[in-house]
Amino acid sequence: MSSIKISGLNKYYGALHVLRSLDLTIGAGEGVVLLGANGCGKSTLMKCLNGLERPQSGTISIDDKDVTSAKGKQLRSIRRDVGVVFQQFNLVENLSVFQNVLYGAMGQRPGGLLTVWNSLAPNTTREKAMHCLERVRMADKAGYRCRDLSGGQQQRVAIARMLMQNPKVILADEPVASLDPKAGREVMDLLWEVVTEHKMTVFCSLHQLDLAKNYADRIVGMKAGRIVLDTQQVNADNESLAELYQGDTRVDSASNGYGLPGVGTGMQEEPA
User: Fold this and answer.
1) What is the domain partition of the chain in residue ranges?
2) How far apart are CA 22 and CA 222, in angstroms?
3) 84-166 and 1-81+168-184+196-272 share a CATH fold
4) Residue 225 per-residue DSSP state
5) Beta bridge partners of 219
């Protein structure tokens, strides 16, 4: 199991201050849900955690490895232990379900793409891919093209691909945002079953307050680039959670509720 530690994290896009001196520690094996309105900085934080964005100051460590300074082989090594579940699935829609799951092993094997291509992959890798599909109850769809699946089914395939990676930490960025409520709850049930079985650390951003209260060990709330709530799920009251979506919530708003003036540059942070 791995822990996550964020200390003094600041991220700017030009003059726009998106992440504002964030401090957060997530214990090994803990399930934490991140809540906040669109534009509050959630997606930017997730990208920094995976090294897709670089902060201007502060540090992020995963399992005591510094993500913020890592480059090249070192960064790839850290990413091998970090599984990511995206809102938009990020599957290759023209290829089969089985092939998409095989791609999850690419970072674990020398030789790159050819070692996880269906006809060239070792039997042990192919067997593991089927096992992962069985775990998400999608083995009967192994030969289907991903474009022919429903949204909920595609997210199940994405979770199977993530399992192929053998990650220690899961970053899930709005994993059910594009699904209907029934499919979303089924995906959340499955995701939490998997991370519990494998004792993974999970940091999951959501909008749905009911899902956060049903699944999280702990709830963290962001507003206008700052962490304003950090509490055990059992102590999270509806009034405090609703406040995350009221008033000036965006990092690019004219005022942000903390005495910090708006930037007024016209720049927009990615919806988060």
Assistant:
1) 1-81+168-184+196-272, 84-166
2) 10
3) yes
4) T
5) 33, 231
Q: CA torsion, points 72, 77, 83, 85, in degrees to nearest 10?
A: 0
Q: Superfamily for 84-166?
A: P-loop containing nucleotide triphosphate hydrolases (3.40.50.300)
C-beta atoms surrounding 45 within 10 Å: 30
Phi first, then psi: give them for residue 240, nearest 5 degrees. -65, -40
Structure confidence by residue, pLDDT tens digits, 4-42: 999 999 999 999 999 999 999 999 999 999 999 999 999
**Rounded Cα–Cα distance for residues 248 and 270 (Å):** 16
Tokens coding 252: 């690019």
Q: How far is CA 249 from the centre of its chain?
A: 21
* Top-tier CATH class for 1-81+168-184+196-272: alpha beta
pLDDT digits (tens, 9 = 90+) for 184-193: 999 999 999 9
Residues 64-79: tens digit of each pLDDT? 999 999 999 899 889 9
Residue 177 binned pLDDT confidence (cut-offs 50, 70, 90):
confident
Mean pLDDT in residue range 122-148: 93
